[in-house]
Amino acid sequence: MAQDLYEQPDVEHTAKRFLDYVTAAIGVSHASVVLVHRAGRLETAAATEDTDRLQQFAGVLTISLRTPTSTVGALNLYDEAPNRFTDQDALRAQLYADHAALAIARARSEASLWQAIEARRLIGQAQGILMERFELTGDQAFAVLRRYSQDSNVKLRDVARKLIATRNLGENL
After folding, report:
1. Residue 91's CB: how many other CB atoms inside 10 A?
2. Residue 110, CA distances (Å) to 8, 31, 60 in order
3. Among 13, 72, 101, 116, which residue has the fewest nearby CB atoms (within 10 Å)?
4. Are 144 and 109 in contact (CB under 8 A)?
5. What backbone phi and psi angles, to 5 degrees, belong to 124?
6. Exposed (0-12), middle (13-18) or buried (19+): which is 5, by Cβ within 10 Å?
7. Of 18, 16, 8, nearest to 101 (Cα)?
8. What are phi and psi of 95, to 5 degrees?
9. For residues 84 and 22, what is the distance between their CA atoms, to the nearest angstrom?
């Protein structure tokens, strides 16, 4: 399971695959993975059907998805019987959750890295456009992009994306 989770291509696939494993191990058919983002924002990354209905009246077992340095989210297991979950279920679910938390954290880290690489690629392309059009150095072109980003309160990668797509940043350029 740990190897399979680690090899998933992204957070969503990792969470869905994790639900396959943990629901089979605990013997439930309803579960969800909720992830914690910056500023405490929550996102359901994966869920079986009907979890909304079961949250109203069913037995629920919630397990933290944690790494040694942070809480990634939570696993929620649901059963129609209110007192269905045992201490043994909780221990088994935590074991699975610990593996999943590490795999999800890795997938998040990898996604952030790819986003940074993509942003750097876009910025480099935009710098090239400005360098050619206005005979600027790389540093000067970057300064133009950064100033436009700050003045218009738009992320630098989005400024670069706009310049690449339209070949124009508007009246400020």
Report:
1. 10
2. 11, 25, 32
3. 116
4. no
5. -60, -40
6. buried
7. 18
8. -60, -45
9. 16
